[in-house]
Amino acid sequence: MAPAIQVEGLGKKYVLRHQGQRQAEKYVALRDVIANGARSAMRAMSGKTEILEYAEEEFWALRDVGFVVEPGEVVGIIGRNGAGKSTLLKLLSRITEPTEGRIVLRGRVASLLEVGTGFHAELTGRENIYLNGAILGMSQSEVRRKFDEIVAFAEVDRFLDTPVKRYSSGMYVRLAFAVAAHLEPEILVVDEVLAVGDAQFQRKCLGKMGEVSRTQGRTVLFVSHNMQAVSTLTTRAVVLSGGSVSFDGPTGQGIAVYLDQMKQSESVYTAEADDAEPRVTRAEIATSHPNGVHAQGEAAEARFEISTPHPIGGAAFSFQIVNGMDQPVLHVLTMDSEIPMCREAGVYTLVCRIPKLRLYIGSYHLRVHFAERVGGKKFDTLDRVCAFSVEVHGEMRDFYWTQGAAAYVEETIWNVEKAE
């Protein structure tokens, strides 16, 4: 049987333009924009023209990408942010054209890349179901046969005759996925957009994708940062790095390659202060060994710097330690009622010392939240920063430990009695 998807020497180039006279400007005030506009208008009235110089830069989002997907395969596309995953899916979905190489698709393709992909905002949910069916080349009778299943899966029957522009993002995603999964495409392409839905609906979607591949022989391409979902759903992973394929093989090995790439990411996060809004300007976790390696059970220290241009009436700061499967395993929260912070404008350094970090062996990173305790306004959220790994040293030899077998190792007291 011929492959469902063939990708050969695929590349996508973008040309970035930088306005020369503005390159060195870090910040342009509104008054400067107005003044520059007035000067341009005066030049136009006097017959003079201003020549703006632009510098062009080539950026290859993808380069020399190639792989083959057989009918009925469920393949995970994984990689760090900026690796080229979304660009690849847009090319496969024919939203944009490649700069070089070729793609051969055998069968109808249904894509769910962004909230509302393929929907017309002014049309109702009912009308969009039929519109998507027509786009996939299905007759009205074929769509009508699947209509009740789609509505039941999406759980939007009460809003079926409401324009989708009034839907919440969750409702949008539920209906979009239901349409994509039920209208019998041979190839189903799903991006991280499922993260918009709640946990129960995500499990429902994963179950449906597994069903269409196992029982109906459909081909599924699934992009996600949730390694648990990738591990559960797929049998094969294509890992992208810097716009190229760095691994193509069994999912378990692909996840290991991805986690190793995450481990090599910057261990310290830095950002510039904002003149208008409070934000996190630095985050790091000091481990017990060099190169972001932490010995299981030893002390660790998380350090953060936050900047606020104005006093905050009730600040709250928290961070999570998240494992390689994107599951939070430790949550630490502090508020200004516990330690005084942000009651005046300025820069604050927060230090959290963990006497014994007893995480299980594996790869981890931080997820950071900075918000207002009263009212719940979010100032800043960081994800996938400060990567580090936990290893076992000394008498606790590595071969007693299996990656992913646990999340945490509690300190215990043992007592042994010998029977007389």
Protein described:
The protein is α/β, with parallel strands linked by helices and 420 residues long. It folds into three domains: 9-58, no CATH class; 68-263, P-loop containing nucleotide triphosphate hydrolases (Rossmann fold); 268-400, abc- transporter (atp binding component) like domain (Coagulation Factor XIII, Chain A, domain 1, Distorted Sandwich). It has helices at 30-45, 85-92, 125-135, 140-154, 169-182, 199-214, 227-233, 251-263, and strands at residues 5-19, 54-69, 74-78, 100-105, 109-112, 187-190, 219-223, 236-241, 244-250, 268-270, 279-286, 293-295, 300-308, 315-323, 328-335, 346-354, 362-372, 378-391. The strands form four sheets. It has a six-stranded mixed beta sheet with strand order 5-6-7-3-8-9, sandwiched between helices. A five-stranded mixed beta sheet has the order 12-18-17-14-15. The protein is globular. It starts with a strand and ends in a 29-residue tail after the last strand.
Please describe the topology of this protein.
Blueprint: E1 5-19, H1 30-45, E2 54-69, E3 74-78, H2 85-92, E4 100-105, E5 109-112, H3 125-135, H4 140-154, H5 169-182, E6 187-190, H6 199-214, E7 219-223, H7 227-233, E8 236-241, E9 244-250, H8 251-263, E10 268-270, E11 279-286, E12 293-295, E13 300-308, E14 315-323, E15 328-335, E16 346-354, E17 362-372, E18 378-391
Parallel strand pairs: 3-7, 3-8, 5-6, 6-7, 12-18
Antiparallel strand pairs: 1-2, 1-4, 8-9, 10-11, 11-13, 13-16, 14-15, 14-17, 17-18
